[in-house]
Amino acid sequence: MLVGVVACVLVIAQAPAPPSPPAQLRDLLRDHERWTNENFPEDALRRGAPTRADRLTDERPESVAERAAAQREFLRRLREIDRTSLDEVDRMNADLFEFFMRDAIDSFERGSWLFPIGPIHGPHQRIPQMAERVPFRSVDDFRDYASRLRAVPALIDSEIATMRLAMSRGMVPPRVTVEMVPAQIGAIVRGRLTGLQDPLARLPAGTDDATIAEITSRVGDAIAAILSALERFATFISDEYLPACRDSISASDLPGGDAYYDGCLRHHTTLPLGSKRIHEIGVAEVIRLRAEMIEVIRRTDWYAADARRAELGPEALFDSFVTYLRTDPRFFHESSEALLAGYRDICKRVDGHLPRLFRTLPRLPYGVREMPRFMAPTQTTAYYQPGSLEGGTAGFFVANTYALDQRPKYEMIPLALHEAMPGHHLQIALAQELPEQPLFRRESGVSAFGEGWALYSERLGIEMGLYDDPYDDFGRLLYEMWRSCRLVVDTGMHSMGWTRDEAIEFMRRNTALSELNIEREVDRYIAWPGQACAYKIGEILIRSLRDKANERLGAAFDLRDFHEVVLGAGSIPLEVLEQRVNRWIDREAERAAKAAPPPASPTQAPGAASPSSPR
Q: Residue 389's beta-bridge partner residues?
């Protein structure tokens, strides 16, 4: 008996101590990274971590629910960690991880995943681009590519299952946002997806004929199956989904009512502002910007060319000037090549100014490319396509060259600043290159931060001297006005009963955007509730933080240091950004106070030098 007791005591004494809170957090984040790479294999492949390179993300409804359950488990494990025992870096990682897990769970419970298609998103948009942003180095890379293509029909069936589930729950989009999708799919089918065969021309030198024939056959068979699945997808949308879609455009008409839209606003802005407050901010910004636009109009050669224009009131002057902008050929390129060359020229001019504004620049290069023709007619003006150093792909500013008479030159500078440098490319590439940060920090994408930064970047063109021409300066104000109008029309349509026509008319009255762009934009806001509000809300906060830092620090304010602290933590919620910048301001103010010379003695004559200070 005594021997058994001693043995038991020894076993207890030798039991390993429970892991420390920092170790618990490291284990949790490591497990999350592994889970992310396994569950989202396409993203892992692009990052250079091809965990399951032969697969696609499983989009079956039950798999989406399983991922939400896994995120709840991650959240449970996080809440068991004693955060008071973590240092500042680990505590921020823990707090941010909780934010992103809660946000993902909220989005699932709200049902955002039940809307897999729209005018600018869906599998039909992703499939023709499956050969982009992925490595093709070894024969195995090509075999994995063929396997991913073969998985596409099952992906389409999964999306159909999701849409049928959504129909049963009344979670269907406005019909106006889906009507063009069958035509988009039809255009893809007619094009036969020939671009998906392009990588075959890059099979490694020395590949034997049998292997070439095998891979070529697998890719060809997969493409044929994809085309058949896309036709089935278009038929489902036309015959089943579209008839079930709703006539109303408001997100508040979905099950859950106003709470659904409020959740969308919180997700995209990361702030508890509410639709009424966001609407008020938008109206105030529209009024402010309208006055600035009138001032710029009065600096143009158009205004000086006719003395009668000085007699026009602000409304008539604005309308007359916008008509001129929309109709004079001087403001439009005559070819896609000229438009793309214009963007590339702007980007190289911008690059020369960056070291004066930023201490850290990304290593990842970027380029400018044309938007795929199949999506251009229904897409917005441009978008940014991230790259990856590990995956061996550059970032790209993708410009829409469809309908050149709707792509004015005066919009090009702010658009290039927004999508490339110092906007999306700089911010996203720097986040990817954050040293020793967990995956979720490097890859997170907070709309209000990323889009707010990109809109803020448009204004940096003033400090670069890019807006000396009043037409370019008007283009800058036009883009800021466009984002301000978004606050008004998004909340107007989804919370205040506005119709689509009312939203279009508001945009028409207050911007110089082309008719095509206005309609595409409004349909985007209808299909993606709340996202359009992220831009201006984020930009307003960043600008206000810069103003606060400049006012408090005075001569000690360094713009490069400010940008370093804004971008140095990756894409983060706005409240976290505000806390981070405020702490930096306090530190810099304290440092400046310590470095300042002591005040003059009360008995010293005014203007006399202190004995300890140099003359």
A: none
